Amino acid sequence: MAAKADYSIYLVTDSTPAILGDRDLVQVVEEALKGGVTFVQYREKTSDTGALISTGKALHQVCQKYSVPLVINDRVDVALAVGCEGVHLGQDDMRVDKARELLGSSAIIGATVSSMEEARIAVDLGADYLGIGTVYATNTKKNTKDIIGVNGVRRINHFLERQEDEAAKNIKTVCIGGINLQNIALVKSKLASWEFSASNHVHWEKTIDGVAIVSAIAAQEDPKAAAAALKKAWTDHSPFLPESHPSEPDVSSLGRYVKDVHQRVPLSHNMTNLVVQNFAASVALAIGSSPIMSNNGQEAGDLGALQGGLVINMGTSTPDNLNNQRQAIQAYNARGRPVVLDPVGAGATDVRRKALQFLMDSGHFSVIKGNEREILAVSVASGYLPRESVQQRGVDSGDSLLSLEEKAYYISRLASREQCIVVMTGAVDVLSDGHTTWTVENGHPYLGSVTGSGCTLGTMISAYLACDPRHRLAAVLAAMLHFEIAAEDAAVRSDVHGPGTFVPAFVDELYKKRMDVVEGSAAWLDRRK
Ligand code: 3NM
Ligand code: MG
Questions:
Q1: What is the per-residue pLDDT across 435-479, written as a single tens digit (0 to 9) for each?
Q2: Whether residue 306 sits in one domain with residue 221
């Protein structure tokens, strides 16, 4: 039973009024089963043993009707009295091996783990599956041990895959905490490993067997519909995974992307730091987009409904800003709108490393753009590079630590892993979607001498992507060339004498390059180096 159980949509019950209201638990669970829940855990922390057993028996009856296993949280005695399929044990509950002695070899025994060490121990003690969490902070359980994010789950999964023994390699896993209809597809795709097949279609495997959910099913007015929608999102192709290999973009006609911004006037919603708001808004207008500088996450639902893109800039990472940014990321993700992450200073302090982790756990980014150090910090947060490898390098110097080949390698791996486009800016910019990697050598050192120029590139990229380009990587390349070549031409103007006079000239040149293309001359795009 344990091996064959379907863990995909795993319902955990909760009888508190906040979740159940005045409804009957057994009825709510039956509705959820009708909707397609595949596994049920009866979790009840306050009732007396007699009541637990009678409700447990009623639950077991409905679960059997749908051929779905029922396990009891914590209470081995109750599981025995009910005669259900097993138990789920927390770290403070009975040990897995002890429960096995009492319940026998055919029982399903699950264990909650939030670290590799706990996972290893639970496997050794004979658990059938692991509940890994807490993924996202949740109102349902305030006193969870550790918020580990999707990346924390991924680390544990990878750890298990790397073990020598079959027991660890084959153990079933579900993750828990804050999973809902908005993020289930993202969680699934981030926990998937994938590659392009010979026929250029994406071949992917999930590395997790299911999601354990309380409120997104049991607190919903219609638990049947909620379970069905979650099941569909779990089963369908995730919109965060590519369908197939992107076709090679046509680099000879990048002008179409410049023109698209002019014609469609997409919104560029910037949640950015105080220093660059004015500059970024001017840049957005110069290229033909419509800027909104709003750090209020509550507005994002309305703004995300428009044709637009969001920029999340980490320059001013107060806790208040971060919560607003999380809300906005989720609103834009829910509508499939582009989100650009600018991880300003990401590796510089512990506060920023945590902020980065928080944002990366909040949702999906279409583009992650930063300088070398920032992108390395993102690679650490993504669990792709170990922390030590970056810190070790980081003390050497402030200059470039990586060769161009290394940069290309790192960013294409990071792009595959995060299913996004990664842009690493520098004297030579490198961009990749995990498949195609390009460099841009245009630009001018003045860009590095004025505040926030890099941030305005994020703004430009958001506008270019908001036009639903035929090819996202090509659109990002067009934005970068627009930015870098405008800087080249601004720097050599006779009215420019240094970084101060450069800024207005740069805005002028951005505008001019746009109008050149609109009027039919895109020759400047051919100056790509
Ligand atoms: N255990 P929701 S989180 C019961 O992390 C439980 O171990 C957790 O509820 C853990 O789906 C959690 O409403 C509650 O966020 C999950
Ligand atoms: Mg417990």
A1: 899 999 999 999 999 999 999 999 999 999 999 888 999 999 999
A2: no
Q: Domain check: are 208 and 316 in the same one?
A: no
Residue 183 near ligand 1, beta carbon < 6 Å: no
Half-sphere exposure of 93 (CA within 13 A, CB side): 21
240 lies in some domain: no
Is the per-residue pLDDT at 500 higher than 80?
yes
* 62 plus 135 within the same structural domain: yes
Helix (H, G, I), strand (E, B) or coil at 416: helix
Q: Find, among 498, 458, 468, the residue nearest to 287 by Cα.
A: 458
* Count of structural domains within the chain: 2
Task: Return the residue whose CA atom lies nearest to atom 15 of ligand 1.
Answer: 178
- Determine whether the shortest distance from the Cβ of 293 to ligand 1 is under 6 A: no
Are residues 214 and 277 both part of a single domain? no
Reported in sequence order, the residue ranges of 383-447 that DSSP labels E, i.e. its strands, are 421-425, 429-432, 437-440
Ligand 1 pocket test, pick from 140, 142, 183 with the greatest ligand atom count within 8 Å of Cβ, gives: 140
Residues with a known catalytic role? 455
- CATH at 174: 3.20.20.70
Peptide bond into 134 cis (omega under 30): yes
What is the chain's length?
Answer: 529
Any domain includes 247: no
